[in-house]
Every structure is written in C-alpha cells, then in structure tokens.
Prior knowledge:
Elements: E1 2-5, E2 13-14, H1 15-22, H2 28-36, E3 40-42, E4 45-46, E5 52-53, E6 58-61, H3 65-68, E7 75-79, E8 83-88, H4 100-107, E9 116-117, E10 126-132, H5 135-146, E11 150-159, E12 166-176, E13 181-185, E14 193-204, E15 209-216, H6 223-230, H7 244-249, E16 257-264, E17 280-282
Parallel strand pairs: 10-16
Antiparallel strand pairs: 1-6, 2-5, 3-4, 3-6, 7-8, 8-10, 9-10, 11-15, 11-16, 12-13, 12-14, 14-15, 16-17
Amino acid sequence: MKNLIVDDKFNNKKLSTFLIASFPKLSINSFYKALRKKDIKVNGVRTNRDICIHTADNIDVYISDEILFPAFNIDIIFEDDNILIVNKPSGIEVTGNNSLTQEILLKYSHLESTPMPCHRLDRNTSGLVLFAKNQKALSILLDKFKKHEIEKHYIALVYGIPPKKYDRLEAYLFKDSKKSLVYISDTPKTGYRNIITSYNVLEKRNDNSCLLEVQIETGRTHQIRAHLAHVGLPIIGDGKYGFNDINKKFSAKDQKLCSYKLKFNFTTDSDILNYLDGKEFSISCDF
C-alpha cells in the first residue's frame, strides 16, 4: 500500500490526474481497473469513481509495485572497476523505494561493494547518473562534485524564445519541503539560497519552443525547472513548474529535461580516478 497526501497543485483535480502524476508509469487502463476493484481509498473510503480531490486529502493506493513501478532494463553507458554511468529513464527516483539505486543494488548484489550514486536527478528528469563502485571512488567523486570538477550538462525543451543566445542567470531559491516545491526570488530573502543557472540556445522552433543546453553552478533542488520557469521559459512536460495548457498543446507526457553529458575536469589529484581527467560521456536526447 502507498499513502499519498494531496498538495495544493492538485486541489480540485481529478484523482486520475494526481495518481498518474505521482506514478508516471501507471497507465490509465490500470487506474480504471483499480477503481473497479475499489483498490483506492480517499480519506479512508474506497472509491470506484474518478472523483475530484482536494488539498490535504489522504489517498491510499492498493496497486501492486509491478504495475506502479514496472521493471526496466538498466541502460549502462560506461563501466569499469571504479565507476558506473547509467542512463536513468524519466519516472523513477535515483534513491529510495523502487528506485534506480535499488535496481543497481540487485544487479550488483554479488559484489563485495555495491555501486552507490554520487549525485541525484529529479524523478522526471532523465539522463546520466554516476555511480561509484567502491568506497574510495565514492569519496573522490563526492569531493570532485563539491569542487565543481565534474560538469553536468543538460538539454531542456522550453516554451518561449530567450532574448539572448547565451545567458548566466542568478537568483535565490527557497525550498518548501512540506509542499515539495521551491520558490525563486530575484533579490535576497531570509531562507533563500543563491543559485546560478546558465543556458545556451541550441535551436529555435516555429512553435515558440526552444532547445537549450543548460549548466548549473549550484545544485539546488528543482533548480533548472524552477529557475527557467521564473524567467518565462517553462520546461515542456513539467507538471510542477510548467503549465498544463502548454503541456497539452505539445502532448507532453514526459518532462523534457535530460542530463545528457558528464565531463571530468580535474584540477586536483584524483588518486585511482586520475585516468578520468578530460573524459566526457554523453547521450542523445530526442526532444
């Protein structure tokens, strides 16, 4: 059983909208089958209708994990004795229950030291995740991320055309953990932390969308999604910081944000990982 609390974004929305946003791999057919079986409770009462729900409603879901989190093949981009680079699909967390890390742990359970993630991506952001296959590599890589000696490059499909081909955006971000939301301010405020997001325009399209390459100098929660939306460039398919009418216009079922490249630029000694200096790994993002 999975227990969920409805946040403000889904106030007065259909139950199906909320559950499919919460479990992106849940099909509409499986949802209606669960309704027929009365496998969903709203505030403790079983329902067989796609009712409207409200802020703070308590939802209990009695749908099997095989349906909510269907198994996927681990897409390995690179692997050696020290590191593992995996292409994470949209709709799965990096850590936690039914996560990419759990799948990795199962696959590598025969090893003395199982791979651990060195950074995270949002659930609905796809792309490259770096794992360390031993404790020494993990310690080195965490230090390299802290020192900004590993670059993460993203591709984003946004709605709107930026006024500049390249820009370096600075603002301030506040994280509301209770609502699982972040807020952006152009001026410093109590509790807000500095963020820096850079973009380079790769392609302008006739439908008022634009393909951007994005880098972040600060790795805050939801930074790219919230910061781009704040400057009028919402990511297409983003159900939290984007706009439903835009997402519908593009028939976007997935968030169009992908971590497409990792680049190792070591400026300090990296011990057993010195061989990675200057290397980069990338995938294509078909947006």
